Amino acid sequence: MSQNYPIGTPGQPWGEAEKQQWFAAQRKQRDYGNDVVRRIEHLRELFQVDSYGELNYAEARFPLFVVRNRNWNPKLPTALVTGGVHGYETSGVQGALYFLETEALNHLAHFNIVVAPCLSPWGYETINRWNPAAIDPNRSFYPHSPAQEVALLMAYMQEQGLAPQVHIDLHETTDTDNSEFRPALAARDGVTHDNWSIPDGFYLCADAKRPTPEFQRAVIEAVKSVTHIAPADAHGCLIGSPMVQEGVIHYDGKGLGLCMGMTDATYVTTTEVYPDSPNTNPVECVDAQVAAIRGGLEYAAKHLPK
């Protein structure tokens, strides 16, 4: 059911005063430098680490990093992994880093690898879906984006001439989607949102314009060895969208400004882990993200044109 939110007037979109009130209520709860940057620095022994900009907010600055293989082979396709588009989604960030630490080198015979582990450091530290301006980065992947997190990465991709053939974007669906983030979204926009049932398990959001069902199936099969796949709800849906095959729904990536719509990759998907399930734990959630990347890359290596 719909929930009231303590900021704003029901039915009226937020103005600048309400956004500032929301921002003032946020608090740092973990440290990007220790949790993320420290691990990226350790990766310099094996990978090229590029700084692609800095988020400059009033209270803090956050350097942004991409990790990529050193000996770039222009004859190979490129695979992009993104994490932390929604900073609060922990296993997306930790999964991207753990993939680099344990798996990425295994795929360099078939791909150039590019990983942006944490697009939204402020969101990571304050456990937020939005950035400080109450903008959702994962609805802002379009030209002249108002989200710094998005604009800086898109500029880097363009400057580097990166055109990935595979893009795997790492996310979570959490209980706080219903308790905090959807009510906040409804309040910000002055509308009503009914809460959805949070799927218990892993699932994928594929691009409706590039569905690639066999690729999605390969990712699901890889994850099955690590954690459980979310069943459809009583209406045959996951988060309000019809389940088109086991553990898979469709969204319009480019139309909604999603990260998975940022490129024209042949194979693209968004992972969704449910860390609040009683049937999983934080380590398993990270392992599921890595398994998803592995399954996607192994499939793409066999099916992309040589």
From TrEMBL:
<dbReference type="GO" id="GO:0006508">
    <property type="term" value="P:proteolysis"/>
</dbReference>
<protein>
    <submittedName>
        <fullName>DUF2817 domain-containing protein</fullName>
    </submittedName>
</protein>
<dbReference type="GO" id="GO:0008270">
    <property type="term" value="F:zinc ion binding"/>
</dbReference>
<feature type="active site" description="Proton donor/acceptor">
    <location>
        <position position="272"/>
    </location>
</feature>
<dbReference type="GO" id="GO:0004181">
    <property type="term" value="F:metallocarboxypeptidase activity"/>
</dbReference>
<comment type="similarity">
    <text>Belongs to the peptidase M14 family.</text>
</comment>
<dbReference type="InterPro" id="IPR000834">
    <property type="entry name" value="Peptidase_M14"/>
</dbReference>
<feature type="domain" description="Peptidase M14">
    <location>
        <begin position="28"/>
        <end position="304"/>
    </location>
</feature>
